[in-house]
Structure formats: C-alpha cells, structure tokens
C-alpha cells in the first residue's frame, strides 16, 4: 500500500518531515520517513527548519513589485510603509 493512496501528497510529505523533527519518534520511524521523502524526490535536510534543500530562496520579481504596489494602494497602510514601498519599487525599475 502506498503512503499516498487516497491522501493529499503534500500532507503526507509534511507528516514525514514532522516525524524527522519529533523527539518522541523512534529511529525506525525516522528512517522510514527519510526513505519516503527520498523516494518522493524531496531533498530534505534535517538541520533546516522544515525547508527542502531545493528551495533557493529566490523571489519572483513580479510578485514582489505587486506586493509593493498593493501596499501603496492600501488605505490601512501607514504613510511610512507606503514611502518604503515606493522606494523599493523605484529600485526595482
């Protein structure tokens, strides 16, 4: 029986990642979780805070700009935050 059968694969992988950090889990269970993650193509670094090692941390510039533009148009945002967003947007162009 597959670990993913009739289940959301992301939830299953998240559970296996949590297993690796749980001090109350046996070494046997941790080894099983490592194998499942490896078989699923998830490069997982136990020393990280739950992030896969394939995540390079780059942000989509379009999304970043969109966030700053939204800040400028949000009436609930302070003038100081809007000024910061404007400076950041000017730097992106």
Give a written overview of the molecule.
This protein is mainly α and 93 residues long. It folds into two domains: 1-56, no CATH class; 61-92. 57% of the residues lie in helices and 0% in strands. It has four helices and no strands. The chain has helices at 9-21, 27-39, 61-73, 79-92. Helix 1 packs antiparallel against helix 2. Residues 49-56 have low confidence and may be disordered. Residues 1-93 are annotated as: Disordered. InterPro entries: Conidiation-specific_6 (IPR018824), UPF0654_domain (IPR052670). It comes from Neurospora crassa (strain ATCC 24698 / 74-OR23-1A / CBS 708.71 / DSM 1257 / FGSC 987). May protect dormant spores from desiccation and play a significant role in the formation or survival of microconidia and ascospores. Keywords: Conidiation, Differentiation, Repeat, Sporulation.
How would you describe this structure in keywords?
about 90 residues, mainly alpha, 2 domains
Helices and strands, in N-to-C order?
Answer: HHHH
Q: Quickly count the helices.
A: 4
Number of strands: 0
Strand content: under 5%
Question: Which structural class fits the helix and strand makeup?
Answer: mainly alpha
Distance between the termini: 53 Å
Count of the domains: 2
Helix/strand layout:
Elements: H1 9-21, H2 27-39, H3 61-73, H4 79-92
Helix pairs in contact: 1-2, 3-4
């Amino acid at each position: 029986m597959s670990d993913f059968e009739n289940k959301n694969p992301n939830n299953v992988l998240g559970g296996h990642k949590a297993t690796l950090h749980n001090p109350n889990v046996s070494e046997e269970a941790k080894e099983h979780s490592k194998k499942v993650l490896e078989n699923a193509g998830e490069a997982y670094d136990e020393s990280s805070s739950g992030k896969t090692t394939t995540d390079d941390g780059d942000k989509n510039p379009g999304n970043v700009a969109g966030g700053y533009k939204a800040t400028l148009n949000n009436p609930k945002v302070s003038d100081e935050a809007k000024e910061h967003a404007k400076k950041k947007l000017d730097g992106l162009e």
